[in-house]
Amino acid sequence: MRKGNILMGLSLLVLTVFSQSCNTSEKKAKELSRPNIVYIMSDDHGYQAISCYNDKLIKTPNIDRIANEGVKFNKAFVTNSICAPSRATLLTGKFSNLNGLYDNRNKFDGSQVTFPKLLQQAGYQTALIGKWHLKSDPTGFDYWNILPGQGQYYNPDFIEMGDKKRVPGYATSLITDFAIEWLEKRNQDKPFCLLVHEKAPHRTWMPDTSYLAMFEDENFDIPDNYFDDYEGRLAAKEQKLSVIKDMDLAYDLKMIDKEGEIQTHYRKWADGFLKRMDPKQRAAWDKEYNPKIEAFKKAKLKGKELAKWKLRRYLTDYLRVIASVDDNIGRLLDYLDDAGLADNTIVVYTSDQGFYLGEHGWFDKRFMYEESFRTPLVVRYPNGMKRKGEVNELVQNIDFAPTFLDYAGADIPEDIQGVSLRPILENEEAPENWRKSLYYHYYEFPNEHGVKQHYGVRTDRYKLIHFYNDIDEWEMFDLENDPEEMNNIADDPEYKTIRRGLEVELEKLQKQYGDTEPEKSIR
Q1: Helices (DSSP H) in 200-278: which residue ranges?
Q2: Per-residue pLDDT of the chain (523 residues; tens, 9 = 90+)
Q3: Are residues 249 and 264 in contact, defined by beta-carbon separation less than 8 angstroms?
Q4: Domain at 33-206+313-434: CATH code
Q5: DSSP helix/strand/coil, 157
Q6: 47-55 CB contacts, 8 Å cutoff, 24+ apart
Q7: Which residues contact 31 (CB under 8 A, 6 or more apart)?
Q8: Quick one: which of 32, 41, 309, 319 is 20 to 30 A from 17 by CA?
């Protein structure tokens, strides 16, 4: 009897252990069946400088690869075209008036609900590497390693989980190094969400030394509206985004002569950037730029020739910086392939907003005009996407948070203002009730770029904008007939009925997004 009891007990123990092992295996399999997320966001990357959108400026084969293996959104937009607010919108899925970050001057409240926190609760590992720019410490991440403030291109400081240290190298490559290192060391029993936030191509567009020979012989076309006179657009006339008037010769265009003859408003900052370089980096830099400085001083350019030279000098470095971003995206994609992660990983590439590359004579962003309002967006997910090719539905950066939560199987809070993109990605056509209009609100004024506060509505064809504060101006554009937004038709009697419809739609969106007193909402 005793022997029989022992045998029975052993059998029960084996069955219990086997059952627990099966349950553990099933749980692990279920966890890992949920998609991983790699979200790559650059800073100020205009869609015009991505070859799947426009192949006239640069080839970006790795960003194109994401689009070719997934989808390219042709009508992706932001809610507030400036760095910190866009990042707050990404995290919260809410407009600035609800997440509390209106401009670059304020601090993000990290105690509020964000999608990384909700992913953690759903069993995901979360990590953030690269540019943060929200002043408060990151929350909702198991690991973070960020650039302080705007960060530096050469030998940048990083803050790793609160520990600040200078790291030798180039920012774009280092961010990728850290991202791959985290992927290799992560807990492989859990799905993950990795945010890779590039500094590039943010001003001052300082290329890695190995890219300094690129685009040397390029003679970039000048945009048709580079010499825009802003007729009928008072807010556009009063800005300080001009490549011709406002771009700094030393700080932006690298004319940092050793004689010190080129003295500009931001010269001391440019000198500071160079001091971060090691001797090898500085030698490569001087070899590239010293001949250009000498040639520029001798040429004594004026008028339109100087204006064209400035634009081409700007674009050369801007595109060199982007080439580095694209190559490092290739490194990440190759790692996902080699590690067997590609099929079950959502890969997103986007920018925190668009950027002007000479259109209207400008650099920077902020305005609701297309080049800054619109952002690039390409998405790949081999295991979970039926949609392929181009997507023309209106989407916005409030949609990222609910999309990630939806795919993770996590509950989407009712106060998130965006909508999951999953129905678009998993079906050949978008739902019939998909949004037909977008709302926008920019707050940061006064500021060094002089862009007035404004809000507006965009439909598939029309755009209506109201500039306010120390100005009271309305602008309206027919994007089908006037894609460059040169002709303000706000007071054109032929468009009176259409304008009234846009005003009604604008009021509806302001109510929907809780921005019912838009001219009093900033603190």
Answers
A1: 234-237, 243-246, 267-275
A2: 455 566 566 556 555 555 565 455 555 555 668 999 999 999 999 999 999 999 999 999 999 999 999 999 999 999 999 999 999 999 999 999 999 999 999 999 999 999 999 999 999 999 999 999 999 999 999 999 999 999 999 999 999 999 999 999 999 999 999 999 999 999 999 999 999 999 999 999 999 999 999 998 788 999 999 999 999 999 999 999 999 999 999 999 999 999 999 999 999 999 999 999 999 999 999 999 999 999 999 999 999 999 999 999 999 999 999 999 999 999 999 999 999 999 999 999 999 999 999 999 999 999 999 999 999 999 999 999 999 999 999 999 999 999 999 999 999 999 999 999 999 999 988 899 999 999 999 999 999 999 999 999 999 999 999 999 999 999 999 999 999 999 999 999 999 999 999 999 999 999 999 999 999 855 4
A3: yes
A4: 3.40.720.10
A5: strand
A6: 47/351, 47/354, 47/374, 47/375, 47/376, 48/357, 48/359, 48/371, 49/201, 49/318, 49/319, 49/322, 49/355, 49/357, 50/376, 52/378, 53/376
A7: 123, 189, 190, 191
A8: 32
Place of tokens 């996590």: 410
Residue 12 CB burial class (10 angstroms; 0-12, 13-18, ≥19): exposed
For the chain, residues classed under CATH 3.40.720.10 are: 33-206+313-434
Query: In 10 A of CB 287, how many CB atoms?
Result: 12
Question: How far from each other are the two terminal CA atoms of the chain, in whole angstroms?
Answer: 82
The number of beta carbons lying within 10 Å of the beta carbon of residue 361 is 24
CA–CA separation, 499 and 462 (whole Å): 9
Dist CA 209 CA 320 (whole Å): 10
Instruction: Compute the distance between CA of residue 255 and CA of residue 307 in angstroms, rounded to an integer.
Output: 15
Q: Is 396 exposed, middle or buried (0-12, 13-18, 19+ CB in 10 A)?
A: buried
Q: Phi and psi for 186 in degrees, rounded to 5? A: -65, 165
Give the pairing of strands 437-442 and 395-396. unpaired
* Integer Cα distance of 226 and 244 in angstroms: 10
Give CA 247 to chain center in angstroms.
22
The answer to whether the beta carbons of residues 135 and 108 sit under 8 Å apart is: yes
Bridge partners (DSSP) of residue 377 are: 350
- Look at the block and give the residue holding tokens 């973070």: 144
